[in-house]
Amino acid sequence: MKLTNRVLNRTLLARQHLLERSTLTAPQLCDHLIGLQAQDMLPPFIALWSRTVDFDPAVVSAALDDRSLVRITLMRGTIHLVTPPDALRIAPHIQPELEKVPFRKGFNYGAMVGLDPDEVRAHGEKVLGDEPMSAADMRAQAAALYPDRDPGAVLQTWLYQLPVLQTPPRGRWKDSSRPVWSRVEPWLGAPLDPGYPVEELLLRYLRAFGPATTMDMQTWSRLTGLKTAVAKLGDRVRTYTDDRGRTLYDAADAELADPDLPAPVRLLGWYDNALLSHQDRTRIIPDGAAPPLRAFASQVSAILVDGHLSALYKTFPTGDTARLRISPTRTLTRPERADIEAEAHALLSFVEPDRTPVVEILAPGADLKP
Q1: Which of 269, 43, 67 lies closest to 173, judged by CA?
Q2: Mind listing the pLDDT tens digit for each residue in 19-69?
Q3: What pLDDT, on a 0 to 100 scale, did the predictor assign at position 288?
Q4: What's the burial of 264, exposed, middle or buried (CB within 10 Å: 0-12/13-18/19+)?
Q5: How far apart are CA 185 and CA 56, in angstroms?
Q6: Computed over its alpha carbons, how large is the radius of gyration of the chain?
Q7: Nearest CA to 152 among 166, 140, 167, 168?
Q8: Which of 15, 43, 81, 102 is buried most deeply by CB count within 10 Å?
Q9: Whole-number mean pLDDT of the chain?
């Protein structure tokens, strides 16, 4: 059966809870989506606000404090907000590739080349121990142990080599404190679970992002050899083809969405998973253009109109005003502009409730500047 991009688009949005806001709790949604991008404080909160009914950001802050949610480096070497079971069972799959990164010539201009990885790891384990430690304190220890090396590079190496997570207060609502790191096992009081089958992880990926090719799965996870893992799923998956004749895999009991379903305007956080989890992103990004990653790094975010990336936005809170500026990527109709303005005002009421909201829609392609 051949699937059009329209079917893939609506199915992705449905599984991401972007067609209709869900009543799932924050941990339940994190479990279903296999984590939320959380490099910065705000994006996971926007992700939850855009996907759930009556979202209260205090629940995430409380979950970080009681350790029912954690911020940890996982897929694509980026920070995700996940449940403790996922931290313990996904990290062992991700760690082997992370540990290779620091000793490549391209890492910090070869700052770690020539050092013994096992010795560096042993020093890192001793430095971090079982108690959380700030990045600044770890950097100071790195400088003492490796006076002839860049201490920042040594710190980064430890954070790649050791299964670690960020502890509160960083990640709480409105708290962008500098990172304090802990090793995963002492923080969660449980051992890592290296026995979690990668095929089970891929089946969960399909339930949240499918149907998808094995290259989509690899783009999302940075894992390799996935055809073998998918084959182990047997009749738990079914196959389709896309417009280009490529094989798409899906959970056998997962439903495809009606391509005629309406897709409301949604404002996403920067680096939202829905945009970054496929090699072929044409199902959500017109023409398959790469997401504006450099713009995302500047806290620029995406707006979905009729299910596709159709504008970028950035919020500028200054004094008593919160200004949300929008740069369309195409010409918008008058109803689309009205829907965008309404959703933008709703987002400002959520993220900046004490400031006067101002929404500005610029000309297509305009720079997002203050």
Answers
A1: 43
A2: 999 999 999 999 999 999 999 999 999 999 999 999 999 999 999 999 999
A3: 63
A4: middle
A5: 29
A6: 21
A7: 140
A8: 81
A9: 95
State in Å, rounded, how far the first CA of the chain is from the last one. 49
DSSP classification of residue 244: T
Mean pLDDT of 239-268: 97
| Cα 270-69-174 angle, rounded to 5 deg | 50
Chain centroid to CA 20: how far?
20
Give me the sheet containing 164-166, strands edge to edge.
36-37, 79-82, 70-73, 164-166, 180-183, 133-134
**63 or 294, which is more confident:** 63
- How far from the centroid of its chain's Cα atoms is residue 214's Cα? 19
Question: Per residue in 273-289, pLDDT tens?
Answer: 999 999 999 999 987 66
Q: Which of 272, 280, 290, 274 is nearest to 216 (CA)?
A: 280
Question: What average pLDDT does range 351-358 have in this prediction?
Answer: 97
**Residue carrying structure tokens 């997962």:** 254
d(CA 216, CA 205): 10
Q: Report CA 249 to chain centroid distance, whole Å.
A: 22
Confidence of residue 108 (pLDDT cuts 50, 70, 90): confident
Q: CB under 8 Å to 51, separation ≥6 — which residues?
A: 16, 17, 18, 21, 22, 29
